[in-house]
Amino acid sequence: MAIVDVTVIPIGTDSPSVSKYVAEIQKILESYKEKGTINFQLTPMSTLIEGELPSLFEVIQAIHEAPFNQGIQRVATNIRIDDRRDKKVKMNDKLESVRSKM
To answer: Which residues form the Thiamine-binding protein domain (predicted)?
Structure first.
């Protein structure tokens, strides 16, 4: 299972606020979560998504397309992937590991 930190940045919006684009992306992520494909967590600066790597690439493509579907002509998407293969680790496992050492 991999964990992805992804930020989708619509370029050329009408205002400095991008919350309507973030909200649409969260709806897409919720639809994938309902299918059991992923789990995700919105943070103030990005979204964390966990799942199997092939599914994550499908999800990333879907959320990258979301601003285009809302009329934006340019989108920059930043992706950081943590793909650990020696054991299955979820987002909460990583947090608990740090907390246990505090």
So the answer is: 4-99
What's the pLDDT tens digit per position in 31-63?
999 999 999 999 999 999 999 999 999 999 999
2-11 and 38-42 strand pairing: unpaired
- Domains of the chain listed by start with CATH number: 2-100 (3.30.70.930)
The 3 state secondary structure assigned to the chain is: CEEEEEEEEEECCCCCCCHHHHHHHHHHHHHHHHCCCEEEEECCCCEEEEECHHHHHHHHHHHHHHHHHCCCCEEEEEEEEEECCCCCCCHHHHHHHHHHCC
Q: What pLDDT shows up at residue 89?
A: 85
Q: Tally the residues of the chain.
A: 102
- C-alpha Rg value of the chain to the nearest Å: 15
pTM of the entire structure?
0.91
